[in-house]
Amino acid sequence: MALNENKAANRESVVEQASSKVKFEIYGEEMIEKKVKSSGNSGRVYLPPNWVGHHVKIIRID
Length: 62
Description:
single chain, alpha+beta, 10% strand
């Protein structure tokens, strides 16, 4: 039983860590700040057409 309790404690600590803010340092070419809009059962962000085919990283800031 101690093993199961330890696993549960580890899951709780992961949840606590996920809810706190972390700092990211990113190097890139360009940045746009936008609000995510609802789209069916998901969210959507529109980006400039010249970004098509490029790699992007999305970071939720709030």
